[in-house]
Design a protein that fits this description.
161 residues, alpha+beta, Beta-Lactamase, six-stranded antiparallel β-sheet, 6 strands, 34% helix, 26% strand, globular
C-alpha cells in the first residue's frame, strides 16, 4: 500500500511530490485510477489547497474528471475561465488572484488563487490539471513546474484513449 509521506530532510514538498507521484503510479496504467490518485496526492500533500483535480477534453470542451475538494463546475468551454484559457493557449496559467482574472469561473467562492497545467499527449491537449487555494498568491513558478512534471508523469504512466 502506498502512503503519503513527508519529504526527506533537505527536499522540498514540491520536489518530493514528483517522486511520490511516480511511485504511486508505478505498475498501474488505468487513467481514471491514476488521475484520482494524483489529485488525492496533491490535495493531501501540499498545504493551503481547497481543490485539486482534472478536467478532460470531450466534444470541444473541458469536462470534470477525478478531483479532491468541493463539488465543481462540470463543463468549461475553451477559452473560458482559467482552465479553458490554459487549454486553449496550451500553456500553464498561474493566477495569484482569481477575482482579478477576466472571466474567472467561481466554482468554489473560497478559491483565491489557481494554477492550471495543460495535460498534453502527442502534441494535443487532452485535459488540464487544476489546483486551487483559498490563499492569495499561493502558487508561483515552482508550483507550476512541479505540476507540469506531475502531468508528464501521469501521461507517461497511463493508458489514454
Amino acid at each position: 500500500m502506498f502512503a503519503v509521506s513527508p519529504a526527506p530532510a533537505g527536499v522540498s514538498a514540491l520536489e518530493d511530490l514528483a517522486a511520490q507521484a511516480r511511485a504511486l503510479l508505478e505498475g498501474e496504467r488505468d487513467a481514471t485510477a491514476n488521475a484520482a490518485n494524483v489529485a488525492s496526492l496533491i490535495f493531501n500533500t501540499l498545504p493551503d489547497l481547497n481543490w485539486a483535480g482534472f478536467y478532460w477534453m470531450k466534444g470541444g470542451e473541458l469536462v470534470l474528471g477525478p478531483f479532491q475538494g468541493k463539488p465543481a463546475c462540470v463543463r468549461i468551454g475553451l477559452g473560458k475561465g482559467v482552465c479553458g484559457t490554459a487549454a486553449e493557449q496550451r500553456r500553464t496559467v498561474v493566477v495569484p488572484d482569481v477575482h482579478a482574472f477576466p472571466g474567472h469561473i467561481a466554482c468554489d467562492s473560497a478559491s483565491n488563487s489557481e494554477v492550471v497545467v495543460p495535460v498534453m499527449r502527442g502534441g494535443r491537449v487532452i485535459g488540464v490539471l487544476d489546483v486551487d487555494s483559498p490563499k492569495l498568491a499561493r502558487f508561483g513558478e515552482a508550483e507550476a513546474r512541479a505540476f507540469e512534471e506531475i502531468a508528464r508523469i501521469f501521461v507517461e504512466s497511463s493508458d489514454l484513449g
